[in-house]
Specification:
heterodimer, A: mainly beta, 7-stranded mixed β-sheet, 4-stranded antiparallel β-sheet, 11 strands, globular, B: mainly beta, 6-stranded mixed β-sheet
Chain lengths: ~120, ~120
């Protein structure tokens, strides 16, 4: 399967714990995006990388959130001191960016439940 | 600020009936326009996109959408719905300029198909 893969698919954690999600993009894609989707809403942009550089962060990305993309390949999204409001589906997408537009392909997401 | 409105939270149609899902956007200039579909527990799949040219665009699974600049709308249609079309549908917009390509999504329309 050469699509975008995310791990784990589901995560249940206690409030206050740290969690880390992983995203493996399509191999030739230089762009990687993280989105958050809460129940009944569309995905909301969190941050994106071009290669290993994190180029933009949404104001939704509080100080408890950190994302990395070492070596411009896979990416991790860490949430520290989780809160119940962090419960959501976290979606990763990748694309190949040049001056024009190419389609972003989405992974199946990681569903986080904070109890 | 850009926004996408999907006024119908939930639509129910009978199998074989026609379908139209509404989408209106607010944006500084005509953006790129997209429709995505999300099945339960899954990521997002691109149905179709509009960049320029013919305002009626064809997508996968027999879907089409029409861009109407004067109405800032991009409604999705299908002439005959199949039971497998039951899912959540998201309209999204993306910028034509600048290096960032993140999408802004509507809140989605849940489609139920009756046998």
């Amino acid at each position: 399967d050469t699509g975008v893969s995310q791990d784990p698919r589901h995560k249940i954690t206690k409030r206050g714990q740290n969690v880390t999600f992983r995203c493996d993009p399509i191999s030739e894609h230089n762009r990687l995006y993280w989105y958050r989707q809460t129940l009944g809403q569309g995905p909301e942009f969190l941050t994106y990388f071009q290669n290993e550089a994190q180029l933009e962060k949404s104001r939704l990305l509080s100080d408890r959130f950190s994302a990395e993309r070492p070596k411009g390949s896979f990416s991790t999204l860490e949430i520290q001191r989780t809160e119940q409001g962090d419960s959501a589906m976290y979606l990763c997408a990748s694309s190949f960016y040049d001056s024009g537009y190419t389609e972003a392909f989405f992974g199946q997401g990681t569903r986080l439940t904070v109890v | 600020a850009q926004s996408v409105t999907q006024p119908d939270i939930h639509i129910t149609v009978s199998e074989g009936a026609s379908l139209e899902l509404r989408c209106n956007y607010s944006y500084g200039a005509t953006p790129y326009l997209f429709w995505y579909v999300q099945s339960p527990g899954q990521g997002l799949q691109l149905l179709l996109k509009y960049f320029s040219g013919d305002t009626l665009v064809q997508g996968i699974k027999g879907f089409e959408a029409e861009f109407k600049r004067s109405q800032s709308s991009f409604n999705l249609r299908k002439p005959s719905v199949h039971w497998s079309d039951a899912a959540e549908y998201f309209c999204a917009v993306g910028p034509r300029s600048g290096s960032a390509r993140q999408l802004t999504f509507g809140s989605g329309t849940q489609l139920t198909v009756l046998p």
